[in-house]
Amino acid sequence: xxxxxxxxxxxxxxxxxxxxxxxxxxxxxxxxxxxxxxxxxxxxxxxxxxxxxxxxxxxxxxxxxxxxxxxxxxxxxxxxxxxxxxxxxxxxxxxxxxxxxxxxxxxxxxxxxxxxxxxxxxxxxxxxxxxxxxxxxxxxxxxxxxxxxxxxxxxxxxxxxxxxxxxxxxxxxxxxxxxxxxxxxxxxxxxxxxxxxxxxxxxxxxxxxxxxxxxxxxxxxxxxxxxxxxxxxxxxxxxxxxxxxxxxxxxxxxxxxxxxxxxxxxxxxxxxxxxxxxxxxxxxxxxxxxxxxxxxxxxxxxxxxxxxxxxxxxxxxxxxxxxxxxxxxxxx
Amino acid sequence: xxxxxxxxxxxxxxxxxxxxxxxxxxxxxxxxxxxxxxxxxxxxxxxxxxxxxxxxxxxxxxxxxxxxxxxxxxxxxxxxxxxxxxxxxxxxxxxxxxxxxxxxxxxxxxxxxxxxxxxxxxxxxxxxxxxxxxxxxxxxxxxxxxxxxxxxxxxxxxxxxxxxxxxxxxxxxxxxxxxxxxxxxxxxxxxxxxxxxxxxxxxxxxxxxxxxxxxxxxxxxxxxxxxxxxxxxxxxxxxxxxxxxxxxxxxxxxxxxxxxxxxxxxxxxxxxxxxxxxxxxxxxxxxxxxxxxxxxxxxxxxxxxxxxxxxxxxxxxxxxxxxxxxxxxxxxxxxxxxxxxxxxxxxxxxxxxxxxxxxxxxxxxxxxxxxxxxxxxxxxxxxxxxxxxxxxxxxxxxxxxxxxxxxxxxxxxxxxxxxxxxxxxxxxxxxxxxxxxxxxxxxxxxxxx
Lengths: 332, 449
Fold this sequence. Notes:
- The complex is a heterodimer.
- By secondary structure, chain A is of the alpha/beta class.
- Helix content of chain A is 36%, strand content 30%.
- Chain A is built from 11 helices and 14 strands.
- Chain A has helices at 49-56, 78-83, 100-110, 115-128, 144-156, 174-191, 202-208, 226-233, 250-259, 290-303, 318-326; strands at residues 4-16, 22-34, 38-42, 64-69, 72-73, 85-88, 162-166, 194-198, 211-216, 219-224, 237-243, 263-272, 279-287, 308-314.
- In chain A, helix 6 links the parallel strand 7 and strand 8 (194-198).
- In chain A, helix 3 packs across helix 4.
- Chain A is elongated.
- Chain B contains 20 helices and 5 strands.
- Chain B folds into 2 domains: 2-46 and 247-448, no CATH class; 56-244, no CATH class.
- In chain B, 65% of the residues lie in helices and 6% in strands.
- Residues 43-52 and 179-246 of chain B have low confidence and may be disordered.
- Chain B is of the alpha/beta class.
- In chain B, helix 13 packs parallel to helix 16 and helix 16 (337-360) packs parallel to helix 20 (422-448).
- Classes of the chains: A alpha/beta, B alpha/beta.
- The interface between A and B is medium-sized, with 28 and 22 residues.
């Protein structure tokens, strides 16, 4: 079993509103982030995600509980814990009037880097984000994607063991997004970094994450690998059978429903073809293990002389799990 | 310490590489001070270390009915108003004629109105019984108390000082001419002058006390006074202009405008804390292994150092402008370098402290802009950046609550070669230090939540 990079222990945070009303933003959240993994924290807006991460990174003090980063308590040994942590915030937290190199040098000094070590790390970071040739240009002259890369460069400059990345792909083009996602995976695979990741883009979370935690109303409601979560939730596959006829008898549908294990429902509908060339018949089937049901399904179709034009298996995704758990889409 | 210096360097770099900020911080106050100084004074006509004052507009109202032998009030007119047949050379030769541009009015009300309208710097008002009270005869062997009123304009502070000085000298001279120069009387003259000076600094009346105590020493005073060789008007005309004219208007306007603009710098620099919070760079530093106290100290020292730099740059620039205008190197802020350095530090502390505490009370950069602007303008307005607040009695106590007044008064004193600046230093350093500490504590508490 992998050892833990971060152990969050019943972390809670209360805020006081204007009229003395106490609001519990985070309620006894506990989670473990294994070393060398990409761990995504998901939650709708206002769920307590930012507050949790602010406490883990030492930006705000918890009302109760603690977070242990690499063996150091963020409340009792904040400087030691912070030394292991790198942060890539969602906003471009750089000084626009300073050059890329000056920004890296300034933040490097804040992480106690000096002299030759600082110079070497800055050079390495510039190379890593592929901006060595633009190092002397001011940030204000950079494109959005380049700024994001410098933003990442500052986060990894001191070679942290844990890197927190808050929506690092927001507002950038697909090409740069791909580049950033590759960079994140490269940091895990080549540098052995642990990455704490947040995003509103479910598909990228699903692609890169080893572990996912879902937080809502200040509480952790699910945690595990993507496949585990989907399985735990009992989400069903959907099988879409396009058939040649525009009419299917109830006998066929009953045979599908009752004659094949794992199928929970089957219905027929006609819909416009994707190329708009006319109507087509579609049988929509819900199954717990869709792929296993396929051979049986084809056998039933043959028995009833039903010509199958195409079959599509749609597996449940993280979006569906999230929707089911929180009642909201991640973008809400 | 290394991290504090790194943060301070970053603050300085960001400030002094921002052209817009530099224009606001240095070019604007420099240009304003130069323009105002040139527009409101007629100083830059000569060269040399003293900048001459000339043609101070003054009005004389002589209500004096005279005594049996002489009209002492007429002496004021003769001293300041050139005779009709005077040539330009005559006028140029007489320092009082060139120093003032005096006219005679017959109505006290008209004279006061003319001063109030700003047309004249001051009015010298001589009472009807002036000669009668001063004159000495066998029947009246003692001088009686009387006074000449100097009604001064609030706008022209230097002109007012000069006219008051002339009136004091004339009055003293008349008194000395009217009293025989015995040893006993001479001793009393010192008292008269001191009383007159005290009176002049507390109000506008120049008093002559009852002379009963010296009546025994009085001789042929009328003869003495009428002797042209004893004409008191010639005696101390040079010294009248002495102290006042060494105050360069660039110091007067430059120092107050500089501190006024420093207020904007101080509030703006302190507000950068809020901007950095909004932009995420402050949080980025806060999640690094840098103690919060180090971050705050670096930011706050940055505010202070920026103020110091701005003040030094403006002092140098104003000195250069003053030298360029006069045609030779002039240290218009004086040459007491140690005291000037102390003044720079104290004034910067005062402005930085005010900037920090005012910005600690607001939440957003937008609020900071509004509040900073209001505070700076109020400080400038009541501190004398735009007009002479000391000339308005009502505003005097309010002006003492502003950093602008204490700072500009400090540089005014240094410019005049004075060294009694302890109170100014204490106020600026004390007030600044306290505000700095409170503001920093508030910022610290806010960052922790």
